[in-house]
Every structure is written in C-alpha cells, then in structure tokens.
Amino acid sequence: MARIAGVDLPRNKRIDVALTYIYGIGWSRSRKIIERAQVDPSKRVKDLEPEEVTRLRQEVEKYKVEGALRAEVQRSIQRLIEIGCYRGIRHKLGLPVRGQRTRHNARTRKGPRGNMFRRSRKGAAK
C-alpha cells in the first residue's frame, strides 16, 4: 500500500484516480504529478515500484495538500468572520455563502427542517 502525504492510497485503483484521494489534488493536478514523476497513469497502486512511489511523493510535496491546506482554508474563513464581511456573516450563520437562494433550497447548509415547518398529516391520531 502506497502512503503519500499521510494518506493510504487505495490499492486496486489506478494511480491517476488514487491521487485524487489526497485533499487538494484533483484530476488535473493528478495528471501533472504523474507526468512529472514519469509514472504510467494506467498502473494500479499495488503495481507501483518503490522508486515510483518515491518520485510521486517528491512531486506531491511541492504542493500544499492535506493538513496545511485545510488549515489555510480554515484561517481564511476565520478571517472573513472576524472582519464581519458579508461572506463571514454567512459562514457564521451557516447559510450559503456564494449567492444561492435560501427560500426553498439550501438544506445542505441549513440542515434538516425544524419541526415547526413540517406539515401535519391530516387525520393522524393525536
């Protein structure tokens, strides 16, 4: 099992897909890393040679990923909250930040509906 940036990559996945399991690495960055490390993108993680894993590890270290990236995102959100800007207030209230409407949607940000908004069933025994 290959361990890169503190993440155990899934053994049976292709390396281009497996790298996307690391926070901060998507499809395009995964392809760049594989190209620079000179690894065959169709290879499975379990079939990688130790020197290929080392080259991949060195390429991934050039980017801010996992804990460092998560911390930076949290600091950015905290800064918005502290300065009291519109986006910071939306983060603080747990509402959508990027202009989405909230009258009918936004259940992901707002959470499940409260009981007072549920419709009562007609004819239900009380």
Overview of the molecule:
By secondary structure, the protein is mainly α. It folds into two domains: 3-65, Helicase, Ruva Protein, domain 3, CATH 1.10.8; 67-114, Ribosomal protein S13/S18, C-terminal domain (30s ribosomal protein s13, domain 2, Irregular), CATH 4.10.910.10. It has helices at 15-18, 27-37, 50-60, 66-83, 86-93, 107-110; strands spanning 3-4, 7-8. A two-stranded antiparallel ribbon has the order 1-2. Helix 4 packs across helix 5. 14% of the residues are buried.
Give the number of DSSP strands: 2
Order of helices and strands: EEHHHHHH
Calculate Rg over CA atoms.
22 Å
Question: Looking at the chains present, what oligomeric state does this protein adopt?
Answer: single chain
The residue fraction in helices comes out at 40-55%
Overall domain count: 2
**CATH topology name of the largest domain:** Helicase, Ruva Protein, domain 3
- Judged by helices, strands and strand pairing, the structural class is mainly alpha
Quick structural overview:
With 126 residues, the chain is mainly α. Helix content is 44%, strand content 3%. Helix 2 (27-37) crosses helix 3 (50-60) and helix 4 (66-83) packs across helix 5 (86-93).
Search tags:
126 residues; mainly alpha; Helicase, Ruva Protein, domain 3; 30s ribosomal protein s13, domain 2; two-stranded antiparallel sheet; 2 strands; 44% helix; 3% strand; elongated
